[in-house]
Amino acid sequence: MSETIYRQIGGREAVEHVVDDFYDRVLADDDLVGYFEGMDMAELRAHQVQFVSAVAGGPVDYSGANMREAHSHLDIGEDDFDAVCRYLEEALVDAGVNEENVEAIMSEVVALKEPIVGH
């Protein structure tokens, strides 16, 4: 059995670090911070750790809401979605995740663009 991306990047601790860095970047962006006002950030971070772990092949099943339903009330534009993706990619790269694994994780995230933006 081949090693999962999840294990290659360092498991839960590494994913938690990436997610913390990701949200630091997102919440520092004046164009994005409004999406998170009044949100339970601890819960969002936990869901994001679960999501990244799942798409990286970790021992986790994502149990969060359907992506379309979870984001439909936010009216997220394409530029904002792209910015969020860029911040996640930067957080992965800065954490030392290799290019092949970054591309694999980001392909899963980019596949969610239509359900999130195209609501």
Description:
The chain is mainly alpha-helical and 119 residues long. The protein has a single domain, classed as Globins (Globin-like), CATH 1.10.490. The protein contains 7 helices and no strands. Helix 2 (11-27) crosses helix 3 and helix 5 runs antiparallel to helix 6. It is globular and about 40 Å long.
Fourth-tier CATH superfamily name: Globins
Cα Rg: 14 Å
Helix share of residues? 55-70%
The sequence of SSEs as H and E is HHHHHHH
Which residues sit in consecutive blocks of at least 5 with pLDDT less than 50? none
Structural class: mainly alpha
Under CATH, the topology is which? Globin-like
Count of alpha/pi helices:
7
User: What CATH architecture would you give?
Assistant: Orthogonal Bundle
N/C terminus separation: 38 Å
Strand content: under 5%
Shape: globular
Largest sheet: none
Provide the domain count.
1
Count of DSSP strands: 0
CATH class: Mainly Alpha
What would the average pLDDT be, to the nearest integer?
90
Write the layout of secondary structure elements.
Blueprint: H1 5-9, H2 11-27, H3 41-55, H4 67-71, H5 78-94, H6 99-110, H7 113-117
Helix pairs in contact: 2-3, 2-5, 5-6
GO molecular function: heme binding; metal ion binding; oxygen binding
InterPro entries: Globin-like_sf (IPR009050), Globin/Proto (IPR012292), Hemoglobin_trunc (IPR001486), Hemoglobin_trunc_I (IPR016339)
Protein name: Group 1 truncated hemoglobin
Task: Give a short overview.
The chain is mainly alpha-helical.
Keywords:
119 residues, mainly alpha, 7 helices, Group 1 truncated hemoglobin
